[in-house]
Recover the amino acids of this structure.
């Protein structure tokens, strides 16, 4: 199985993607990885490493910057690492793409080159968030579609539920709607109409989810417009980062607190892992016709490794084919 990795995308490229790819190859025996990027920058990182026959270099001299306008960047830079990696999937030379690059450009390139899954109006960017109890919560959309229609939000719920069934083995995923209150009539006209459509669907709809309950484990999938979802995601990431930083300051303040930190070390490390996005790897752009995984722009080796193993499992189980079939059945039943 072959997976393409955008070696130039993200804040820590190309080192982090290369390290993540090498560690994934060591773990998965039948995996092949195509590192897509500037080979003159990638090759020096491989000099002291054992030769990997399952590692392929694909030269792509250009890079799409994190601040570039997505549509213009994709059109003007056909030789960028991101565009070339997605083209490999389109040409069936790889089964999935992993990138930590410009999110908007990744979605744009996916739409222009791969296209939408049949029956899906707009793809969604998903993110897996930690919860206080349970495995996590899949939040979508977190930035791809800022002004969705109710029908599109319902499709996000369908895709998210199927993804959780196939990848995480949740028999009947609970689906919630991010809103400003629990009552059915709360929120914008978009939220109110979406609530009714979700309530009438075959999904296991558990109602509105307020942002303060997002990490409480009330739902397995939470759907949102991309504007609100992105704010919720960034707030959660920032709060987790800042709280862990404050804990560290307090616990290292003096001799007594250092003793307390030593006694609490195991629990604190478990909490840090639970709140660290690196542990969750990446999440797919659901609704594209082929598999594209987005990892956080600041990702290090571990996040790339995890994202590659997730994508490998996704491909190995033929999850995309089953989601495509279920979306087709859902559309036929409407």
């Amino acid at each position: 199985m072959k997976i393409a990795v955008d070696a130039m995308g993200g804040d820590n490229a190309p080192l982090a993607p290369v390290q993540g790819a090498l560690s994934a190859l060591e773990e998965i025996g039948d995996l092949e990885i195509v590192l897509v990027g500037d080979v003159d920058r990638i090759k020096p990182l491989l000099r002291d490493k054992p030769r990997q026959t399952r590692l392929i270099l694909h030269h792509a001299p250009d890079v799409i910057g994190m601040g570039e306008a997505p549509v213009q960047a994709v059109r003007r830079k056909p030789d960028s690492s991101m565009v070339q990696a997605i083209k490999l999937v389109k040409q069936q030379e790889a089964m999935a793409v992993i990138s930590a690059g410009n999110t908007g450009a990744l979605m744009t390139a996916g739409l222009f080159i791969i296209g939408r899954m049949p029956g899906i109006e707009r793809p969604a960017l998903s993110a897996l968030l930690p919860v206080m109890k349970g495995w996590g919560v899949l939040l979508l959309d977190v930035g791809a579609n800022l002004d969705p229609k109710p029908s599109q939000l319902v499709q996000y719920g369908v895709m998210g539920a199927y993804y959780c069934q196939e990848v995480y083995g949740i028999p009947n995923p609970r689906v919630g709607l991010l809103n400003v209150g629990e009552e059915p009539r709360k929120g914008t006209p978009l939220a109110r109409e979406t609530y009714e459509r979700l309530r009438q669907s075959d999904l296991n709809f558990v109602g509105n989810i307020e942002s303060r309950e997002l990490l409480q484990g009330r739902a397995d999938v939470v759907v949102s417009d991309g504007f609100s979802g992105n704010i919720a995601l960034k707030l959660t990431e920032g709060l987790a980062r800042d709280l862990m930083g404050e804990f560290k300051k307090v616990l290292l303040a003096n001799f007594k607190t250092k003793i307390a930190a030593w006694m609490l070390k195991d629990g604190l490390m478990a909490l840090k892992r639970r709140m660290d996005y690196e542990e969750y790897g990446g999440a797919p752009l659901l609704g594209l016709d082929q598999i594209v995984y987005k990892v956080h722009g600041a990702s290090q080796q571990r996040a790339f490794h995890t994202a590659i193993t997730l994508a490998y499992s996704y491909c190995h189980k033929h999850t995309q084919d089953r989601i495509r079939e279920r979306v087709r059945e859902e559309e036929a039943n409407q």
Remarks:
- The first strand starts at residue 2 and ends at 6.
- The radius of gyration is 20 Å.
- The first helix runs from residue 15 to 27.
